[in-house]
Amino acid sequence: MNRPLSLLWLQAGGCGGCSMSLLNADTVNFHRLLQGSGIDLLWHPALSAEGGPAFLQLLEDCESGRRALDVLVVEGALLRGPNGSGRFQRMGGSGRPLIHWVSELAAVARHVAAVGSCAAFGGISASGINATEACGLQFEDDTPGGLLGAGFRSRSGLPVINIAGCPTHPGWVIETLAALATGRLGADDLDAVQRPRFYADHLVHHGCNRNEYYEFKASAAQPSDQGCLMEHRGCKGTQAHADCNLRLWNGQGACTTGGYACISCTEPGFQDPGHAFDVTPKLAGIPIGLPTDMPKAWFIALASLSKSATPRRVRQNANADHIVVAPTAKKTGLK
Questions:
Q1: Judgement on whether residues 209 and 81 belong to the same structural domain of the protein
Q2: Per-residue pLDDT tens over the stretch 196-237
Q3: 328 inside domain
C-alpha cells in the first residue's frame, strides 16, 4: 500500500488502559512515530481534537465508503446489553448503540483489530455475572463468536487481529499496525486465538529474572521475596503467551521484575481464575497450573531433584527482599 494506513480507533466498554499504555511508547513524538510506521490516525477518542458533528461525519463517511478505512481498532469490550440491544453504550450524538457502529464499520474496514483482552475476549469487562453482556469482537473468552461472529473476515480476508493484554504493550500495537501497513501480516502470523505470533509465540517465563529460582524451585513466600512466584504466589508466567520479560515495559521491567505474579492477562478468561490472583491453587501439594507442556510426573521428579540441589545462595536469597548472598567469584580456568 503506497498511501498511509488509515486508522480509526474506537473505545468501547473498558478503562482506556491500553491507550494509556500506548502513550508510553518509547518516543518523544507519538504522532511522528505513527507517521513513520505508515499509519494515518483518522481519529482517537483521547488524541483527536474533532468531536460532535465532525466526528459523526467521519464515521458516516467511513461507513458509506466515502472515506477509506484501512484499520478499525476497537479498545474495550463490546457491551451488548440489555438483552442484546446495545443500549447500555450509545455513540454520543448519534442515538445508535456503539455495537451497531462497530458492526457496520467492521464490514467495510480492510482490517479489524482488537486492542486489549477486553476487546479480544471480553476480559475484565465480562467478569463475574457480566450484567452488561460484554464480549470480545470475535471471541467470548476462548469460544469463537463474540459480536462479529466466528465466521467474520475483514476485506483483507483476515479474522479480527487480537492484540491481547491487560494492558497491551505499546510495542505489540505499533508493530502489528506497522506490519499491516507494509503487508507483512497474514493468517499464518496469528496463533490459535488470533494473536500476533511475534509476541504470542513467547512465554512470559522467557527472560524472567527469577528463572534461577524457578530452576531450583526456590520459591517466594511473600510478595517482597526474591524467589520464584509460581509455587506459592500465583504466577502463571510459564503458561502466559507474551514476551513481557524480553520486551521490557517502559524499557525497565515487567510484572515479575516488580514483584508481582504474572496473571496471564493475554489469555482468554484470565479475569475469572476461580481463585485469588496471588495464590497458587494446589492438588496434593502440587501446583495445578504447571508449564503448558510439562507432564505432572516430570514436574514432581524435577522439583524434588532441583530442591535437593539448591545452592545455599539461591535458597537464602529466595526468601529475602534483597540479594543477601552474592554469587562467588571463582576462576573457571577457561582462556
A1: no
A2: 999 999 999 999 999 999 888 899 999 899 999 998 999 999
A3: no
Q: How far apart are CA 149 and CA 159, in angstroms?
A: 10
**Low-confidence residues of the chain, pLDDT below 70?**
1, 289-296, 298, 334-335
Record the cell numbers describing residue 64, joined without a space.
458509506
Cis, peptide link before residue 170, omega less than 30° from 0 = no
Domain extent for 233: 203-322
Measured CA distances, 86 to 42, 58, 82, 107, 147 (Å): 25, 21, 6, 18, 11
Q: Are residues 132 and 94 in the same domain?
A: yes
Report CA 208 to chain centroid distance, whole Å. 17
DSSP assignment, residue 327? Answer: P
- pTM beyond 0.85: the answer is yes
SS3 163: strand
- How many domains does the chain fold into? 2
CB pairs under 8 A, 24+ apart, for 248-254?
A: 249/24, 249/169, 250/24, 250/26, 251/26, 254/204, 254/208
> What radius of gyration, in Å, describes the C-alpha atoms of the chain?
22
